[in-house]
Structures are given as C-alpha cells and as structure tokens.
User: Fold this.
Amino acid sequence: MVKPENNCIVIFGASGDLTHRKLIPAFYHLFANGLLSEKFAILGVSRTHYSDAEFQEKLKISLTANEKVDQQMLTEFLERVHYQPIDTSDVDDYGKLKARLDDIEQVYETGGNTTFYLATPPSLYSVIPTSLAAHGLNTEDNGWKRLIVEKPFGYDLATAEQLDKTLHNAFQEHQIYRIDHYLGKETVQNLLVFRFANGMFEPLWNRNFIDYVEITAAEFLGVEERGGYYDGAGAVRDMFQNHLLQVLAMVGMEPPAVINADSMRNEVVKVLNSLQPLTEEKLKNNLVLGQYTESDVRGAHLKGYRQENGVADDSRTETYVGLKMFIDNWRWNGVPFYVRTGKRLPTRVTEVVIHFQKTPHPVFGANAPENKLIIRIQPDEGIQMSFGLKEPGAGFKAKEVSMDFHYDTLEETQMLTAYERLLLDSMKGDATLFARTDAVKACWEFVQPILEYKENPEHLYGYAAGTWGPKEADELLNDEDRSWRFPCKNLADTDYCEL
Ligand code: BG6
Assistant:
C-alpha cells in the first residue's frame, strides 16, 4: 500500500472524548500496521496546559485501558505525539501554533504538509479556520494544508450554508474533508463494488424489477452520556441527515465512469438532488417520529429517554425516525425507500434490504417466496439473497431459502476501521469518501421541512425502549402489503444480531 507523504496532523480538541476514543487509537493502529509515513507527527491542541510528556501519559493510559497494545510500539508511537496549549478563541494565540509547526517541520521533514482536525464542539468550527487563515496556515505555498471537519456540518440549512461560507473564506473546497464515518465502513463501500463490479445485478437495479427498498440503522443503546448534545439534535440531525442519506445515495446512484473523488461525488449529489421534496402532506403521511419510554425488556429495566442524563424531563426530541421517500429520476421513479433509524431498538443492526417484485402470476399459490437481497452493513457483515425453492415432497409448494455470504469467512485480511480508513485517505489527499459541500447542502435541503415539522410537539409518538419503534411506523408499509424486515424477533439477552 502506498504510504502518505511525511506530514503533521494537528488535533484541535486534543483533550476531548473523540480524540481519546477514536482518533488516537486509529492513528496508533495505522502506525502499528506500518501504514503511516516514515516521518509523521501528531500535535494535540487545546486550552488545557499539558507538557508533551503529560499528554503522552494521558494517551498511554487511555490506549492501554481499552485494548492490548505492544509496549515497544506504543513507546515509538507516543514519541511522535506532541502538545501545544492555546486559547483557540484568541486569534493571536495561533502564533504559538505556527511557531510549533515550524519546529515540527524541521524535525520531521514534513515539507509543511499539515492536516488540521477539528475534533472540537461545533461552536469552534468557524473560529479555528478563520484564525488559521489569519496566520497564513491555510496557504499551500509550503506543503499541503487540509482541514478535517467532524459532523454536524450545521444545525439546519441556514447554519450549514453559513458554516460553509466561513470554511470557504479560509480554505478551498479541495482542502476541506468532511467526515461521515459511515463512508469509511468497508461494507458501505462494498455497496459500490457489489453493484458495479457484477454484471448480473445492475440490469435489475431499477424500478422495473425492484418493489421497494428498506434502509435500517438500529441501535440497542440509548443516548448514554451524550444526552446534552443529543437533546438539541435528535435522530434526524444525528443519523438521518448524514449517514442514512449517504447510504441511500450509494444504493441509488448511477455508476460513475471511474472511482475518484470527482466522479463518485458527482453521482452522489445527483441522487441527493433528485430526492422528492417533502410537502406538508407527505410529512403527515410518510414520516413517523418517536421517542423511547421506559420499559422492562429481557429482564432488564431500560430508562426512558427523558430519564437520561442531560435530557430535559419534558423533552420532545425524537430518538426514532421512519420515513417513506422517493427518488424522482428514471431509475427509481415510484419505488419507495423506507428509511428508519432509532436508539433503544431491540438490537444493533444496520442493513439495506432490496425487495424485488413478485412474479406476475402466483403459479405456486398465494404465499409466494420473496426475492430479497439483504446487504448487512453491521454487525455480522455480509450479504444474503433469498429466493423460492421447491419444498421436497409431493406437489409443488415453494419455500423461501437463502444464500449467504459472511465477511468473517474471508481469509485474514487487514480490515481498517472507518476512522483508520478515512484518516489514511485524507493524508493521501483522497477525498472520495468525504462529503462534498454540494452533497451536504442537498441533504439539508431535503431535511429542512422535517426540522420544521418536528417543532410541532404533536408530531411525536412514544415507543417502549427495546421495541422496534412506534407502531405508526409499521403502518407506513402495512397499507401497501409490505412490511419492515425485523432482523431479530427473538433475541436472547444479547444485542448481537446475526444476518
Ligand atoms: C454517530 C451518532 O454519528 O453515529 C451516534 O452521533 C450514533 O449517535 C453513531 O450512535 C452510530 O455509528 P455506528 O458506527 O455505531 O453505526
């Protein structure tokens, strides 16, 4: 594998949760697997005063607490980690950062190649890039400069446009990498390979053969310690506007001529721009919002959303969203996409289910088997195709059977986590799996009417924690003789769900 050039990654928000939980472990694994450049430095930045040694010690504790690490490898990794305290809201303080980067450039021969990672609260998303630009840290005369931005990219359409403007005042689009960690998942990328590397599926992948599509991202966990953030966001902003619409775009897009950042993202944005706008009437008929309530399930007592830490006790924030939506183009006209996501559902599962049309005439009786293709994104990643087979014995009764592929049957390969893959790509300058500005805007444009609709407290249903969401969501499909797939009806006391 080609390694990135020598570079330095500056992490703003270095003492925060994201840095400790996701970023540093991802860099450590990339380093341990020999995937980083020979000369590679990390510079943690935040307000708290630490020396390099103190910061390294903190990282050491969090890395060793969560996994088994090779001590020698860890020491070598931590030697490359440095720390610079600055007041990120004070533009003058960025002079210290610039001086520190000059030193790092000398020692690590980075040639000035630098990535700035915004792992901070979104309130700093405009102030940091603007201050970097004030010190010339955005210009590429001396090595490349990139900016990685974590979601949320705005709070609604207007704030997203405002944020975009601020980012573009300081950095050019080719320098901005917007992380949607769903795009870093192997199985999401596999949607493209599955569709475009096989001649047999693409001819069927359209309105002539597909009856409907389901996209589900279910989580068993509730909001855990993130109640404060989540209560201001809700499932529509947290999962639907970004991750689910990106997955939908991968299912719905046209084949790109080549796989590169421009060509791929051109196709993604075409789908997003073809989403049928949500009118008042469509919202009323096709959208279900829900919030989990306390319940006893599988012998455990689960708190209701309003009892979670950081959540208002009269909160009307949705923890579930189910939507029937359409893509208005030649390929998909009239094919409903049922998309749902929720917290405190019976299990953790993310999957896409393609339901093919029934045979025109039921020769073998009314209960004809379904032809469906399940693309399991997580867990037990894999693909399952179901079809009808003659039930052995007298007569001609058809029975539904399936052919399965599970990723874990592949021989030992180096599977990168989503963050590892995306960090590596950004260091190599490959933006294919990052959200482009026009795609983010198209998602907000589509979602904006939902944000307004959900302001009305009457538009929220309850569902018992540990169940599949409000019963009203089932009715989105029932009327049409369709149903959601419930991947795990009879769960044991585990939140693991096999394909
Ligand atoms: C994050 C959301 O973006 O995605 C979380 O903020 C959610 O609320 C998470 O739990 C789900 O990601 P994954 O990879 O576990 O499906």
User: Anything to note?
Assistant: Residues 7-150 form a domain with the Rossmann fold fold (CATH 3.40.50.720). Residues 219, 238-239, 350 surround 6-O-phosphono-beta-D-glucopyranose (CB under 6 Å).
